[in-house]
């Protein structure tokens, strides 16, 4: 099959899938995916509510995403961590939770699936994210994820299945997320931190060179969140001895 024929086959596949969503104006919309694939789903409202009730085993809530400057819902701690990781990713410019519902027929029955997140990357690419720990992915779930991945490929999106984040990366992201808001930024302090960490230094030692540690650290953590300063977040918990340095793109 040639490239043109393959592309036509992919779009035909997408035409057999319906997508229901609520746009940024609160209007409910429904149609075939091949017609709506280019909607700004990163600004879509959730297609279903995030409910909570007495005795509930999972934890629901909202996370304020610095990328989209909006609340993003989650239905478990694992989903919240996935949202934080997306928000921290410098390639992500906006994200939305439960952005649409896909419906299709598998030849035997009507099927439906609501992905957990839709993210827009800086290059314009769309990313659909489903969150579930690997040990909870049964045969039916794996089948739905595989179908969703094929649908995403048909319209030029990425598909990611995300499970539990590894420690200590998860712990470090939760800490840095406390300082994601712009209110933690102070330009004079940030300028000094960039100068101090032009060469690698321990985190506390560099902060102390700039001024009072308690006043400087929020700005330092904010710059780490913004990837202007870098440190290893995967090998050990972030601490005073963590080596920090200016990102290469910020160096003269």
Strand content: 15-25%
Averaged pLDDT, please?
91
* Biggest sheet overview: 4 strands, antiparallel
CATH class label of the largest domain: Alpha Beta
How many strand units?
13
Total separate domains: 2
Estimated radius of gyration: 21 Å
How many helices? 8
Shape: elongated
Unreliable stretches covering 5 or more consecutive residues:
1-9
Strand order of the largest sheet: 2-1-6-7
Q: Can you name the CATH architecture of the largest domain?
A: 3-Layer(aba) Sandwich
Terminal CA distance reads 51 Å
SSE series: HEEHEEHEEEEEHEHHEHHEE
Protein name: TnsA-like heteromeric transposase endonuclease subunit
Folded structure, characterized:
It is a single chain. The chain has 2 domains: 3-162, Trna Endonuclease, Chain: A, domain 1, CATH 3.40.1350; 169-250, Winged helix-like DNA-binding domain superfamily/Winged helix DNA-binding domain (Arc Repressor Mutant, subunit A). 34% of the residues lie in helices and 23% in strands. The chain has helices at residues 3-15, 33-36, 77-88, 139-155, 169-177, 187-196, 203-210, 213-225, and strands at residues 18-22, 28-32, 61-65, 70-74, 92-97, 101-105, 110-113, 117-121, 126-131, 158-162, 201-202, 229-230, 243-246. Strand 1 (18-22) and strand 2 form a beta hairpin. The protein starts with a helix and ends in a 6-residue tail after the last strand. Mean pLDDT is 91; it is low at 1-9.
């Amino acid at each position: 099959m040639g490239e043109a024929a393959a592309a036509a086959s992919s779009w035909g596949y997408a035409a057999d899938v319906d997508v229901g969503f609520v746009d940024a104006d609160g209007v409910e919309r429904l149609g075939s995916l091949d017609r709506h694939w280019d909607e700004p789903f990163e600004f879509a409202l959730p297609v279903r509510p995030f409910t909570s009730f007495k005795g509930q085993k999972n934890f629901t809530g909202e996370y304020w995403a610095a990328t989209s400057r909006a609340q993003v819902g989650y239905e478990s701690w694992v989903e919240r961590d996935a949202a934080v990781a997306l928000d921290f990713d410098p390639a992500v410019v906006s994200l939305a939770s439960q952005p649409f519902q896909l419906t299709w027929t598998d030849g035997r029955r009507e099927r439906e699936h609501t992905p957990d997140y839709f993210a827009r990357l800086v290059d314009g690419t769309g990313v659909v994210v489903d969150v579930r720990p690997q040990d909870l992915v049964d045969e039916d779930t794996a089948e739905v994820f595989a179908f969703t991945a094929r649908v995403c490929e048909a319209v030029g999106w990425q598909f990611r299945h995300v499970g539990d984040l590894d420690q200590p990366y998860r712990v470090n992201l939760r800490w840095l997320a406390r300082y994601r808001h712009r209110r933690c930024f102070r330009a004079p302090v940030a300028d000094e931190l960039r100068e101090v960490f032009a060469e690698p230094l321990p985190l506390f030692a560099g902060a102390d060179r700039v001024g009072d540690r308690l006043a400087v650290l929020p700005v330092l953590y904010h710059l780490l969140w913004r990837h202007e300063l870098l440190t290893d977040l995967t090998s050990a918990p972030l601490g005073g001895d963590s080596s920090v340095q200016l990102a290469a793109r910020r160096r003269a």
